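Task: encode each sequence below as structure tokens.

Item 1
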Amino acid sequence: MTAAVSLPAFPAPLHWLNEPEQWSVDGDDALVITAAAGTDLFSDPGEPNRYANAPALVGRLDGDFTLSARVRLDLLSTFDAAVLLLHADGDRWAKFCLELSPQGTPTVVSVVNRGVSDDCNSMPMRGDDIRLRVSRVGSAFAFHIAEGDGPWSLIRYFALDGDPEVGFLAQSPTGDGATVRFEDIQYTPKRLSDLRNGE
């Protein structure tokens, strides 16, 4: 078990699921993670391939909450991604990604894993100021995305068994590695009143 990591914007101790190449906490609300080449978290639904070596920093948040971050990375290789992660165990997890598609486009991707991965590409992104958010709403979870200071758009609303930890992941499955910067990390201990009104 690695030593706990403190991030002032995150109100609980964090720990690594997999150690990164490099990492740093910058100020109160920024985290940088460098993933090595060939790192991923994915269980292919059509093949026996399972990958669980991407570096992820997670901690436990109780009750309803929202956790958001502005993500910055150079998307150089297919499936390089910045990720907000929910992780109950090796079979039960969910990730919300800004990921480079095979077509070379930054794309919003969500994956819910219940033994195998349910992989969904939602929309391409053209801007370079992207925020990701994960929320717990009672027994369910929601993924939202926003561009700049624009409204939040619902991408996915789902249940996940277990009591997942939440945090941050970087991946580079086909590339030589990727460095992800999570900025303006914000935690709010409250329940979203409406998943679809942009709040």
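Item 2
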Amino acid sequence: MDPKAGRRERKKAATRNHIAEVALRLFAERGYDEVGMRDVAREADVAVTTVFAHFASKEALVFDQDEQHEERLVGAVANRPPGRSLIDALRAEALSAARWFSAPESIAFWTLVENSAALRGYASRMQARHEQALVAAIAADPEAPATATARRALARFALEAYSLARQADDPLAAVEETFDLIQNGFAPR
């Protein structure tokens, strides 16, 4: 949260975070399919309309960081420092995210997602949205690959590094290996 944000914005963000935390706790305790929006509202001590004012759907309660993740992806490309390559910027962002993947809360989060068809579907649609945003950011970059296919492939492989890292025993090594392949190709060494 921006420290310069006004009181109203801070309260709104705090309410949103509180609702998301309560929802994740309830989903972990009872199972995603067993908890409704009314249950979340009751436990968070807010009106159901307040929950919907902050989250468009039950799935969005779980993926409350969706917009921030997309902003970081696009920002890694658009706001990278001079001299940092496009691939190095995407690698750095993936490494930053991968540091969280070994944490117990991350493991619990992704277990929740994997155990729900609705959440797996939402995650897939979210990944497609992120891919489109990343392709657009890459296309606007001076280092962009020349063809639309190459730009889509770079975005897709960069995003797949996150999935591979989540499933790896060593998430950081998985990101490094994936980006080495992206950067150097698949030729034997």
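Check on item 2: Residues 66-184 form one domain. The chain has two domains: 7-56, 66-184.
End of task.
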